[in-house]
Design brief:
Blueprint (H helix, E strand, L loop, with lengths): L8 H12 L2 H13 L3 H29 L3 H8 L7 H33 L8 H5 L2 H19 L4 H27 L4 H9 L8 H15 L7 H4 L8 H30 L9 H11 L4 H35 L3 H20 L16 H26 L7 H8 L12 H20 L1
C-alpha cells in the first residue's frame, strides 16, 4: 500500500494543529482553569507545554516520519529486533479509540447547540436536558461519526487536508471576533484578572498534575495521533520547529477561548467551577442575555464545531491508518468498518447519561468520566513517557543519535546537544513525578 503525502507545509501544520486544537482547548481547558485556580493553572499549563510538550511532540513526529508507518507498525519498522516496544503501538491504537469513544459525542453536542442557535431554538437549552435525551445524543454522535468517516474516504489531500484548512482558518477568524466582543462586556476586567493573574497559593500537587494532563490532552501526544502526520511529510523541515508552530497555534486557541468565556462568566455571574457543563450552560445563558445573542451564539458554537471536528477527523485518520496497515483495506472499506466500530463504542458515552447506569468513580460519574480518565490520566502521560524513553535509549530503544538525525533533517529549529539532558532526564522524570502525584 503506497504511502499518501500531505500536499504542503501549511497543510501539515494545519492538520497537526487540527489534531491538537479541539475540545481540549475550547471545552476542557476553560473548565479545568475554572476548577484549578484560574491564572495559577494557566501558568503551570504554559510551563508544561514548554518543558514537556515541545520535546515529546518532536519525538513523536520523528518516530512517525522515520518509520513512514502508523503506530501499530512504526516500532517494528525502526527497531525490528526489539519486539517489546511493539506493544505500545497497539496501546496507542487503543488510546485513539478510547478518545473517540467520548470525543464524537462532545462533537455532536457542539453541533446540537450550533443548530439550536441558528434556528432560534435556544430558549430552553441546557446541558442536563441535552444529555438526558438518548435520541438527541446518539443522533448527533452518529451524524458526527458518519460525516467524519465520509470525508476520510477521499484521498488525504482532497479530503482531510482540504477540509481542515478551511475549518481552522474559519475557526481562527471567529475566535478573534468573539474575543473582541467579550472584551467589551462590563465584567471583562474581573474575568480576565481571574484568568490571567496567577495566585501562587493555589498551586497544589493536584493542580500541577492537572496542568500536565491537560497539556498532553490538548496536544494529543502520547497515543500516536501526532506520529501519523509525521509519517505523511517529507524531510524539508526540522521537527522541533514544526512542533513549536503547532504548539503556538494550539496555545493561541486555548488562551483565546478563555478570553471569550471568563469575561462572559464575570459579567453574567456564572459559576466558573461548573466542570464539563461550563461551556454549554454558561455560554447559552450569556447569549440569551446579550443583544444579538442568536447571531453571537451561532458563531460561537460554530467555531466550537470546527474545533471539535478537526480533532475528530485527525484522530479517526490515525485509527483508519492503523486498520488499513493491519488489513490492507482500501480507504473506503476501512472507513466503513472503522465508522461502524467507533459509532458502537461511542454509544456508551451517548447513552451513559440516561440509559446505561455506569458510575465508575462515584454516583455522579458516567461513561464520559471513565473514557476521559483513562485517556487523560493514564494513556497520554504514560504514552509520552514511552516515546521519550524509546528516543533517548540507544541500547533498549531507537536511540538519541537516530532521533536527532531524523528531527534535524531539513531547515529550521534544531535539537541541540545541550538539550540532551533535558530530553533524557528532565522530561521523563517530570512525567513520572507528576503522573504519580496525580494518582496519589
Amino acid at each position: 500500500m503506497s504511502r499518501e503525502k500531505i500536499g504542503s507545509r501549511l497543510g501539515f501544520i494545519m492538520l497537526s494543529a487540527g489534531c491538537a486544537i479541539g475540545c481540549g482547548n475550547v471545552w476542557k481547558f476553560p473548565w479545568m482553569v475554572g476548577q484549578n485556580g484560574g491564572g495559577a493553572f494557566v501558568l503551570l499549563y504554559a510551563v508544561c507545554l514548554l518543558l514537556l510538550g515541545i520535546p515529546v511532540m518532536t519525538m513523536e513526529f520523528a518516530i512517525g516520519r522515520a518509520a513512514q508507518a502508523s503506530p501499530v507498525r512504526m516500532y517494528q519498522t525502526l527497531t525490528p529486533g526489539k519486539r517489546a516496544w511493539r506493544l505500545h503501538g497497539y496501546v496507542a491504537f487503543f488510546g485513539n479509540i478510547c478518545l473517540m469513544a467520548f470525543y464524537t459525542v462532545v462533537t455532536g453536542w457542539m453541533m446540537h447547540y450550533a443548530v439550536s442557535f441558528l434556528l432560534g431554538r435556544y430558549g430552553s437549552l441546557s446541558f442536563a436536558g441535552m444529555t438526558s435525551s438518548p435520541v438527541l445524543c446518539a443522533g448527533y454522535m452518529l451524524f458526527a461519526v458518519a460525516l467524519g468517516f465520509f470525508i476520510l474516504t477521499f484521498q488525504l489531500q482532497k479530503g482531510l487536508e482540504a477540509v481542515t484548512k478551511v475549518m481552522l482558518s474559519a475557526l481562527l477568524v471567529l475566535m478573534v471576533v468573539l474575543a473582541v466582543k467579550a472584551a467589551t462586556l462590563p465584567g471583562a476586567a474581573e474575568g480576565l484578572r481571574f484568568y490571567l493573574v496567577p495566585d501562587l497559593h493555589k498551586i497544589t500537587p493536584g493542580v500541577i498534575a492537572a496542568a500536565m494532563n491537560q497539556a498532553f490532552f490538548t496536544l494529543s501526544i502520547g497515543i500516536g495521533a501526532i506520529a501519523i502526520f509525521g509519517s505523511y511529510i517529507d524531510k524539508s523541515r526540522t521537527l522541533m520547529g514544526e512542533s513549536l508552530h503547532v504548539i503556538l497555534l494550539d496555545t493561541f486557541v486555548a488562551v483565546v477561548a478563555g478570553l471569550i468565556i471568563f469575561p462572559a462568566c464575570a459579567t453574567y455571574g456564572m459559576e466558573v467551577t461548573a466542570g464539563p457543563s461550563l461551556l454549554f450552560d454558561t455560554m447559552a445563558t450569556v447569549f440569551r442575555n446579550m443583544a444579538g445573542g442568536r447571531i453571537w451564539g451561532t458563531l460561537f458554537f460554530l467555531f466550537m464545531v470546527f474545533a471539535a471536528f478537526s480533532t475528530e477527523l485527525a484522530v479517526c485518520e490515525n485509527i483508519l491508518a492503523c486498520v488499513r496497515e493491519m488489513t490492507g483495506w482500501s480507504r473506503r472499506k476501512g472507513s466503513l468498518v472503522c465508522g461502524v466500530g467507533i459509532a458502537l463504542i461511542s454509544l456508551t458515552t451517548a447513552l451513559g447519561f440516561s440509559v446505561i447506569p455506569f458510575h465508575p468513580f462515584g454516583p455522579d460519574s458516567v461513561f464520559l468520566d471513565f473514557w476521559d480518565g483513562l485517556v487523560s490520566t493514564h494513556l497520554l502521560p504514560l504514552g509520552a513517557l514511552v516515546f521519550t524513553l524509546y528516543c533517548v535509549s540507544g541500547r533498549l530503544g531507537w536511540g538519541w543519535d537516530a532521533f536527532v538525525a531524523e528531527a534535524n533533517a531539513g531547515r529550521g529549529l534544531r535539537v541541540r546537544g545541550w538539550m540532551r539532558p533535558v530530553f533524557t532526564f528532565v522530561v521523563p522524570a517530570c512525567i513520572v513525578l507528576i503522573y504519580v502525584m496525580g494518582i496519589v
